[in-house]
C-alpha cells in the first residue's frame, strides 16, 4: 500500500472535515530523481482539510514511508548555517530554563544532531532518526542515535537503557506524524513527572496571513495552531503551558507541553489563542479564499517567468527545499522555464527535481555565470541570501521572490 486516505481528524477523531485547498497531484517533495527513474515517479493528491471540531488543518492523504524517503533521505539540517545558529540559540534557551547538566534530552527526528550537538559533554543526549545515513552523520559527532521511528515500544526500551527524559524535543517532525496518539503516549511515558516536551512546527497563522501555501507537501501532514494542540495533549492528561512564535521557516511556533500539573499556564498560551480566534483560524469561513489566493500567486509567477523566457532571458532557481518543489509543481514549471536549480545539499546535486524534472547543480555555477533572473525558492532566507549573493546581484542578476507576493529585487 503506497497511499492511504484518512477519514477522521488526526487530533480529535471527528469526521467534520472540509477541503480548503487543492494543489493538484504531486510527487513527494524529497523524491529527487534521475532520467532512468522518471517512469517510476508517482503522484499523489495534495489537498488540505479543516476540522470543524478541533480546527486542525491537515492532509488526509498519507503517502507510505517507503515512498517518501526513497532510500537515502536528502536533507542534512547542518548544511544550513541559519538553522545551525537557530538550534544553538534554541539549546541555550532549554539550558537556561528546562535542563540541568547530566539530565537526559531525547530528540525525535534528530537529523544530523543539529540540536543535540549543543549538549554534548554536559548533558546526556539521545537522538532518534529514521534515516540511516543521517543517523550515521550524528553518531560521527559523538551523538548516540537510535535508527527508527519513535513509538511507545521504543520509549519503553529507552527507559530501560537510559531512564526517563527531562526534555523531549521534536522539531519540524511533529507535523509529519500520522499517528499522533502513538507519539504523544510514548512522550508521556518517557518524560519525568516534571519533564517538558518541546516542539517547533510551522505556524498556521503565518501560513494563512502570508499565503505560504508552498509549505504544503505530503510529508507535512498537520498545520498547527494552539487550539488543536491543546485538544491533543488534553486527551493524554498533558497541557500546553507556553508558546513562543519564531521566525524559522517563514513563521513557526515553539510549543511547550508537560503532564497536567495544576501549575499556572503562561499568558503566551492565552494570548496566542486569542490572536488565532481573532484571525479566524477557528472558523471555516477564514479559509474561503485560500484556493483563490494560491491561484493568484501561481498566475502571476507563471506569466512573469514565461514573459522573461519570451525575451530569451534565462531564469534559474535558488535552493531546492521541500516547499520549492510544491511551488514548481503547482506552477507546472519545467526545464523550459527554469534552466537549473542550485542547492548546496550534496545528495541533490546531479539529480532532477521531483515532478518538474529540473537539474539540480552546485551553487558554484553562479560564481561564473550570471542568469538574468533567479527565482528564490528558499524565500524564508530572503535577507540572508540577498546579502550572501550581493556580488551576483551586482553583476546584474535579479531575484524573483515568490512569497508572500511576487516581487523582483
Ligand atoms: Zn479535529
Please tell me about this protein's structure.
The chain has 409 residues and is of the alpha/beta class. The protein folds into 2 domains: 185 residues, Rossmann fold; 117 residues, NAD(P)-binding Rossmann-like Domain (Rossmann fold). The chain has 13 helices and 19 strands. The strands form 4 sheets. A 7-stranded mixed beta sheet has the order 8-7-6-9-10-13-12, sandwiched between helices. A 6-stranded mixed beta sheet has the order 16-15-14-17-18-19. Strands 2-3-4-11 form a 4-stranded antiparallel beta sheet, with helices on one face. The model has no long low-confidence stretch (mean pLDDT 94). The site of zinc ion (ZN) has 8 residues, from loops.
Short description:
The chain is of the alpha/beta class and 409 residues long. Helix content is 31%, strand content 24%.
Taking the sheet with the most strands, its summary is: 7 strands, mixed
State mean pLDDT (0 to 100 scale). 94
Distinct ligands, ions and cofactors found in the model = zinc ion
Number of strands: 19
Counted by DSSP, the helix tally is: 13
Number of domain units: 2
* Strand-residue proportion: 15-25%
**Sheet with most strands: strand arrangement:** 8-7-6-9-10-13-12
Query: Termini, distance in Å?
Result: 46 Å
Provide the CATH superfamily of the largest domain.
Answer: Vaccinia Virus protein VP39
**In the CATH hierarchy, what is the class of the largest domain?**
Alpha Beta
CATH topology of the largest domain: Rossmann fold
Q: What is the helical fraction, as a range of percent?
A: 25-40%
Shape label: globular
Which structural class is indicated by helix and strand composition?
alpha/beta
Computed CA radius of gyration, to the nearest angstrom: 21 Å
**Low-pLDDT segments, ≥5 res:** none
Under the CATH scheme, which architecture of the largest domain would be assigned? Answer: 3-Layer(aba) Sandwich
